[in-house]
Amino acid sequence: MSATTSPTRRGKQLDELELGAWRGFLRTHAALSRQLDAELIAAHGLPLSTYEVLLFLADSPDGQMRMSDLADSVLLSRSGLTRLVDRLVRDELVERRACPGDARGMNAVITDAGRARFAEARKTHLDGVRRRYLDHLSDEERELLAGIWDRMSQGAMPAC
Amino acid sequence: MSATTSPTRRGKQLDELELGAWRGFLRTHAALSRQLDAELIAAHGLPLSTYEVLLFLADSPDGQMRMSDLADSVLLSRSGLTRLVDRLVRDELVERRACPGDARGMNAVITDAGRARFAEARKTHLDGVRRRYLDHLSDEERELLAGIWDRMSQGAMPAC
DNA sequence: TACAATCTGTTGCACGCACAACTATAACAC
DNA sequence: GTGTTATAGTTGTGCGTGCAACAGATTGTA
């Protein structure tokens, strides 16, 4: 179940199998994220990055999160999140609220309109994720993939 | 081996397993592409997008490709590729050459300097891909993944 | 208390990309 | 031939993002 590769042939080109496992990964991600993003924009005017923010806010206890925590969650730089939240505030899907107990901090809070919009978008998105990804996998494959990703993010993260 | 999911529960949230298989995929891709890009820039001043272009050119018969074919290969818009090749020409890693037999077309041609630069970068990149991705997989897992990606890009592509 | 070091979020700036509009060439119809 | 349609590549423009620099608040130390 764990990595059992023969001593890696450093610098040598990838063989057929390695190539399929690696470039297929890249191709699949590119295709999926493009399609899901386009789908979400077409149906609800929400890009995927926005959807992610609403997702984390909607699923958090009080519908709010600290800016920096949110940035980490959606894998965005702090400045990137500042701008993204700017747009969400403009569209009245999110509000900024001073963080009680720490005058430096700000909380992003999802509004009722934001929740409504997100609930609609979630249907579309879940449907897309299933149809384009999950439905192509058997139960065993899903389990295996979940394990692989888990293993990788543990191994890869602390290295940088 | 093929998809055997019970009739998808449309709209319902993802269960634990589905979540792991899906969000892990996203997280892993984000982390890997960030790290590999940063690594390549630090070591050779080449971003990943540039590396991809040089890869396709270096591996093509005469070290040259039509602009539009190249754009499709590296998953970039045509305008995006035009600008990217502009930069490569400025850095003298690639040249533009009129396409014989079609006065509309242009070929991007890798230069000697481009080949040299790419050969260096390739070592770094292959090493990174192995260390961060392939080495975490057993042979069976690599085989399974290659199959999954293949199945998915066939199913997902024509749908859009 | 005072002062340095750290942390939070925002802003200036530059970059890379996509979309749409455009020019030039090619392919096809008649 | 002429006219129409399709294709190739470039350019104008706007958007989303990261990095570096910054102001304000907090924590730690003397």
Protein model, in words:
The structure is a homodimer of 160-residue chains. Chain A has helices at 16-44, 48-59, 67-73, 78-90, 112-132, 139-156, and strands at 64-66, 94-98, 106-110. Chain A has a three-stranded antiparallel β-sheet with strand order 1-3-2. In chain A, helix 2 (48-59) packs across helix 5 (112-132) and helix 3 (67-73) crosses helix 4 (78-90). In chain A, a hairpin with a 7-residue loop joins strand 2 (94-98) and strand 3. Chain A is globular and about 55 Å long. With 160 residues, the first copy, chain A, is mostly helical. Residues 1-7 and 156-160 of chain A have low confidence and may be disordered. The interface between A and B is large, with 61 and 62 residues. Chain A binds a DNA duplex (30 and 30 nucleotides) through residues 47, 49, 66-68, 76-84, 86-87, 99, 102-106.
Number of strands of chain A: 3
SS-based structural class of chain A? mainly alpha
Q: Assembly type of the shown chains?
A: homodimer
Shape of chain A: globular
Low-confidence segments of chain A, given as residue ranges, are 1-7, 156-160
Spatial sequence of strands, sheet with the most strands of chain A: 1-3-2
Can you summarize the main beta sheet of chain A? Answer: 3 strands, antiparallel
